[in-house]
Amino acid sequence: AQASGTTNTLRSVHFTDANTGWAVGEAGTVLRTVNGGTTWAAQASGTTQWLNSVHFTGANTGWAVGSSGTVLHRALAVINVEGLNRFTTAVAASAFAYPGGLDPAGRRTVVIATGRDWPDALGGTSLAGVLDGPVLLVDTNAVPAAVTAEIARLNADKVVILGGEGAVGPAVKAALETQLGVGDVERIWGGNRYETADAIARRVILLQGVAFDGTAFVATGANFPDALAAAPLAAARKRPLLLAHPVTGLSAGTRAAMAGVTKALVLGGTGAVSPATEAYLRTAYGTANVTRLHGVNRYETAVAVATHGVAHAGLGWNRVAITTGENFPDALAGGVLQGKRGSVMLLTTPTALSPPAATALSARTAHIASVTFLGGEGAVSPAVRIAVRALLR
């Protein structure tokens, strides 16, 4: 006997493999198991009619039929978060994450970063997670009209700009001050990408206070993919991101900014974050408190980060997002959305689904009922979308 969790009469059961099965019955009851029936979870069916038979053709595609002509169909839910460009895609991600606007009970803050370059923006998802607001992208010297409209829709009353004037120019700051007020626009920045990351990390730790769990990410300051792969985890768990120089490692300023850190997650292989940097972290925090999440390339690293997030940080595979690993804007803005959802993000090449992502999805079809594509077809091609749907059908 196995515990079904219901006392309703069950009329039909169907398994798609040794672990994944469905049972249906009285009053629209639908149950699902992903562990061979050891535990069953109730699923929303949308009906109170008796269901008499169920059949699935894949982990996520199936039908149930019942009384009064009831026919139910379950299929993989596909969500497209995209705009005409990187700026409007970020607006779309904000709209999905905050459909009713920002929390009226708190300070309603939006994080602003340049959509033209990545270094100053990498810590933005951590800060956005703490502030419970989106990351919106602007041009170097102009605020896109869609961004202005989204700030208004969100009912935001404060903006935090990331980076110096070379990244987000004075004209942008002036435009935001006109919209919100001079005292409601703040800039967090440093003399270079490392100092800007330090400043953002200090703010993340300060805002959390005693709620900070002591864990920080350390990624290379020479490239963006490894840091972006951790964006959902950074947003969900509000963990700061520090940048290490690939040769000289962590600067004195960065080490100082890590005050209060007790654990480190190193993102990427030794070519990204050097063994010397890892050795310093292990000396500072203890070997057991330093974990390197990596693969042979950015796509495998993204899988390693996602796997860690599910195993150790409360994230899940359902609602997984797929985005390009060749550019930063879509992953940056989408990371906040994924953090809000408690889900992970995988990276792919634009034209073909990356093998590491394909392997990860194939192994977890029973856990994924919904998938999100971040970016338009130039970022995630139709071929990639077709391949993902085929794996998860």
Describe it.
The protein has 393 residues and is an alpha/beta fold. Helix content is 34%, strand content 24%. It is built from 13 helices and 19 strands. The strands form five sheets. Strands 1-2-3-4 form a four-stranded antiparallel beta sheet, with no helix packed on it. Strand 2 (21-25) and strand 3 form a beta hairpin. Helix 1 (86-97) packs parallel to helix 11 (329-341) and helix 2 (124-131) packs parallel to helix 5. The radius of gyration is 23 Å and the shape is globular. It starts with 9 loop residues before the first strand and ends with a helix. 49% of the residues are buried.
Question: What's the arrangement of secondary structure elements?
Answer:
Blueprint: E1 10-15, E2 21-25, E3 30-33, E4 41-42, E5 51-56, E6 62-66, E7 71-74, E8 77-81, H1 86-97, E9 109-114, H2 124-131, E10 135-138, H3 145-153, E11 158-162, H4 170-180, E12 185-188, H5 193-208, E13 215-220, H6 225-229, H7 231-237, E14 241-244, H8 252-257, E15 263-267, H9 275-285, E16 290-293, H10 298-312, E17 316-324, H11 329-341, E18 343-348, H12 355-362, E19 370-374, H13 382-392
Parallel strand pairs: 8-19, 9-10, 9-11, 11-12, 13-14, 13-15, 15-16, 17-18, 17-19
Antiparallel strand pairs: 1-2, 2-3, 3-4, 5-6, 6-7
Helix pairs in contact: 1-11, 2-5, 2-7, 2-11, 7-11, 10-12
